[in-house]
User: Fold these one by one.
Assistant:
Number 1:
Amino acid sequence: MRTIPHFINKHAIKLLYALTLGMGVIIFFTLENGHVIGGDFAQYIEQSEAILSGHTADLLESNTYAMDHSDRNIGPYLYPVGFPLLITPVTWLFGVNFIAYKTLMLFFFLLVCITSFYLFRTCFDEPLWPLIIALSILFNYYFMVSLDLIGSDIPYLFFALMSLYLIKKQRRSNKWLHQLGIGMIISFAFLLRTSGVSILFTLGFIHFYEDIKLFAGDPGSYLRGNYRRFLPYIVFIIAIILDGTFYYSGEQNHIRLLQNASVSQAIDNLIHYATEFKLFLILYYPEISVLFLILSTPFLVIGIIRNLKHNLLFLVFIAANFGIYAIWPEQERVRFLFPVLPFYFYFLVKGILIVSASAPRFKLHLLPYFLLLGIMIQGLFYSFRDFHQDNSSNVLSPASTEVFNFITTKTDPSALFIFTKPRTLRLMTGRNAIAQSETSGMLNSEASFVLKFREPMLEINGFELIFSNKDFELYRIN
């Protein structure tokens, strides 16, 4: 048994790249053309198109109307510019090409796996353990599923991990280029997702913790010797100014929701996200996943407590993210936890190794192997199962293509529609839309048409069925 760890330690980097690239090829050939009928992806693509055409102001006007006249919170008027900017070259080269967008997501995912290995490499005596952490991400089902979605989650995770890697290295390097790199990557992470401010907070906390005594002792000497450490903050401020100068602010409606934050909501949110970690270990079996979460928590806590000083950087970043989770107005699913998941695996493995060293006869050091094996089996099995399932809720399914073509050719371009996913309808047909779930809201709106997923609809005066297929029904509001 000892020969296997020896082989892995000796060839860890080769194994990392071989497995990462191999899985990358497999995942590429399983990517589905099209996209599940959501909303975020459509707005990202529309914003990238608007950047290329110079019509961002028009998109802001259309989407502001759609968001303000919908009966629920759907999304911001505009997303931060980072992700639309990231996919703009793809839009320019290939047009609205879903496989091309998803290939870019896959590229960043492979970078996430590689970066996580190097981020944790110096935290262990042997490369075996950071390799297990990296592979736990590579074969994780939820990450694989996310690669069929066009969104900022995976690219943001890469820039967050890369930022922390550079911050970790700055203790050995105070060069201009290094500090400039930290500032640029943190800035772009923030432009991808506003929660990227957690990285800047982490950097500031670490600087304060490490330098407060030096600064208090001789401020002048400290500033002369460490002025380069202020460069990331200067770069960040410049990036924010440039963003505000050359792009449109569009998150006002999302930010307004933060005004409703309360202590009870914060506690409820934290409990929700803490229990979501169980899904990363066991899928589809709630009782077993809860049991695994309970059994793994002591190892996690021990890993954190015994590494408070050495891993302060990671812990501050985790705390900053959970601070954001606490005040976030809506409870999101597991993808919201992606930024802290690598550290969950890290402290879990650390705790297992600490307990194993104090009780060697129990051979607890084998647990990370079984953890990785379980993640691999589940990830591959459920991903393979999903690949063979028919997805009728795809924007490029025959039924979707048929109804979108009907709308494009048979309705006025200025007509307003009602649809549960208004941004998707606008991307696929060029018609603006709002979301209304109640009949009274539909009749009192300025919309001319209602598009619904096919389901029994009561005969109500004022609605005329003008098109239907196996998945959709289109009504005219008379």
Number 2:
Amino acid sequence: MHASKVEVVVLGLLAEEPLYGYDLLERFRTRSMGFWVEVGKASVYQTLRRLEEHALASGRPQEGTEGPDRRVYRITAAGRARLRAGLRERVADARPYETDAALALGFVHLLPLDDARRAVGEREMALYEWRSTIAGERERAASAQGAAGAVALRMLDLQDALAETEQRWLQAFGDDLPKLRA
């Protein structure tokens, strides 16, 4: 059974250091990870419970804290093995990039030409805005320390390069739309 993407995120952050659930979410945010992987708050807490049930992480109540149960989570040896296997599997996976936009673009020839042009143009604008957001996020990512900060910047570079490549592709695709009619 392979590690889910949320398991990889949670185990990866716990492999760096023990964390409270809230701090794990904060680390996800400060590392700009939401720019390349979608992970919801509820799924993080569900995953922490599941990892604990399967002895891939251990959570211990923090003594001396007031208020709701605050647990510090640590990765276990089995969790490290699961993380390493999940990382190797995901890095080697050569499946195509999948987005809702790619699915729609695969059928855009079924739209009237003006609608198709408008949709492609809107996607180009959305990517332009996305790239502007990425540029702004680089400052926050640069504040992350050490290797984690350097990796966060490189992942933002990847997202920007993918968006730039798609923009160029969309321009050529838009030019070809009249020839691609059903």
